[in-house]
Amino acid sequence: MDVLKLSKPCPLQLDPDQPLAEAIDILIANELCFAPVIKDKVLLGILNLATALKWTRANDPARMQGIVKAVMQTKITPYKEGLEIEEALSEDNFWFPTEDFQGNFDGIITARELFTSLSRKITTQNKLTQAILESVPVGILAINGVGEIILMNKAAYRLLSVDNNVIGKPIKMVFPVSNLTDIIETGLTEYGHKLEINGRTIISNRSPLILDDNISGAVTIFQDITELEIISSQLVSVRQLNLELDAIIESSYDGVMITDQEGKGIRINQSLARLTGLDATHYEGKFIDDLFEKGIFQYASITIRALLEGRTITGIQKISTSGKEVLVTGNPIFDTEGKVHRVVTNVRDVSELHQLREELRNSELLATRYHTELSQLILERLKTDKIIVQSPGMIKLFDLAMRAARTDVTVLLLGESGVGKEVFSRVIHNTSNRAVTGSFIQINCGAIPENLLESELFGYESGSFTGANPKGKPGIFEIATGGTLLLDEIGDLPKNLQVKLLRVLQEREVYRLGSTSPIQLDTRIIAATNLNIWERVKDGSFREDLFYRLNVFPIEVLPLRERREDIVPLSIHFIQLYNEKYGVAKRLDPKAIPILEAYSWPGNVRELQNVLERLMVVTDEELIESLQVQLQLAKLKTKFSSPITVNKLIPIHEARDILEKELINMALDSYPSIRKAAEVLGLDHSNIVRKVAKYGIKR
């Protein structure tokens, strides 16, 4: 708090040329021991009553006629604007004169007021500190130098199932397994210390309490990771199951192929490649019925028949590339809604048909077991896998990101807003060694005010500026040591901070504000922007040397309109997500798929997610129809803005005609053929031709 805020007007002011005897009488009359001496609003000194009386009693007639300035004390330190209470109290006075920023006398402050104000400040700070301790979700416990508990927050009481009666008791008696007193003895900080307390797994970080360069106790910060331990164990089981399933598929002498609900290949084993003479590139990510259209299969695909009919289909197929005649069995796998989710196809050489007859029953049982295991594995993976991608281009980019994760190379993620740059940065971190040694930290360079961004990035020492934490504060670079730091929206970084960032990248060290000592960094840097950063280099708003330092390993994430293969799986994922979130069981009309795929998605994946969430909320029926999708997307296209408003009532038939004409126009603009437009609108070809003529629509 500024000392001047406590200043009050002085009840008495003396003039330097005022007769001393008169001044003495005034002080006595007002029962004052001191008074300031003021001239033209400027403080010249202080007249002390005792000093004045002593001076006049020296039996010198000349002194009896003296004036105030002959006796006043001139060696004074007035308190000016900006002085803090703590500094003011360093003077041993009962009251203090004050000056404003122009040097004019402002008033006086009593020592009592200073002490009272400081007491309030200390009380407020103590309450704030206590509120912070009680608000954090992790447990905090501290002991003194003899091992007695001196502090616990609410989270600590809850996690350890105790009450405040434990305060003051030895920790060895309350929590003998903690060994927190070892920290007092060693003086070393320990991280990741695991304990079993009340059947729960607790992980803690423990540090000594240092006071006046002496160890005065120890503190531990801890949290319950029981659920995380369970999830980790489950993940290990899923990975093991995945490996076992891969081994089962590859060990089969029969050819095995797995396709998705669209008839695209997911994987094959080596036996199928041997039987057909075609490697995995002809199947994975490709429509299986393309092999029939290309003449590689002589007959229509058995897999596609099983997918369309929803039952097991067995038939003979001839392969032109290998000249073999094979027996093919397609087995559909259904999801929880009863829809075909996968098809597992088994391929065997007909020359072994006699063995197949003998082992048919065993093969059917084995196939059923395979299907059950595969179905369970897929469900588990869908629950845990957060990355939805089918586009070959995006798969290549993720492969590139994982290659980058093997080293600490600086990565620059480019791409439009909403394409998933943060997802890429997390993949790089999670697949690197830094996922074990540190955390993933991100900061949005465009979201923090420029005057705060520097202290957030580099930290500061105590007393660096007014309002600074008296203990100082580490910056984001320090916090991310051992891990990965994502500098999001790097293109918006102010020019004055670009120089400092360049030095951090070059020297791998950082200086806190107010410090001359460098702090060595061990941090993986990833930068991301949705701007054309090279254009910003050319117009001078971004440093060219910093651009080259960041552009070591660029990855440009594709917009959704350039990877339309991902639209359907992403849509399915988001619908499942919001079904769980809102407790509903809605599904998307298959006729809506071409509409979603035709839209340009300027907002990319984020826009797709928002549109689907909106549809989930506004749609009353379980089926989200294609028309509803079309209307939602139409609202996002200004060229399709509706002429119908709710400003006035119009006849229903008139509104129906306007809407029908608008939808036909929209469909014809979106699709190259009338037949495709008719399919999207749910009309037959002749019907839409009549309506085009009726409304005079020109193409």
Q: What composes the largest sheet?
A: 5 strands, antiparallel
CATH-defined superfamily of the largest domain: P-loop containing nucleotide triphosphate hydrolases
Dominant shape: elongated
In CATH, the architecture of the largest domain is 3-Layer(aba) Sandwich
Strand order of the largest sheet: 6-5-9-8-7
Low-confidence stretches: 374-385, 638-647
Task: Please give a structural write-up.
With about 700 residues, the chain is α+β, with helices and mostly antiparallel strands. About 45% of the residues lie in helices and about 20% in strands. It has 29 helices and 25 strands. The chain has a five-stranded antiparallel beta sheet with strand order 6-5-9-8-7. The chain has a five-stranded antiparallel beta sheet with strand order 11-10-14-13-12, with helices on both faces. Strands 16-19-22-15-23 form a five-stranded parallel beta sheet. The longest helix is centred in the middle third of the chain and has 32 residues, at about 355-385. The chain is elongated and about 140 Å long.
Concise description?
It is built from 29 helices and 25 strands.
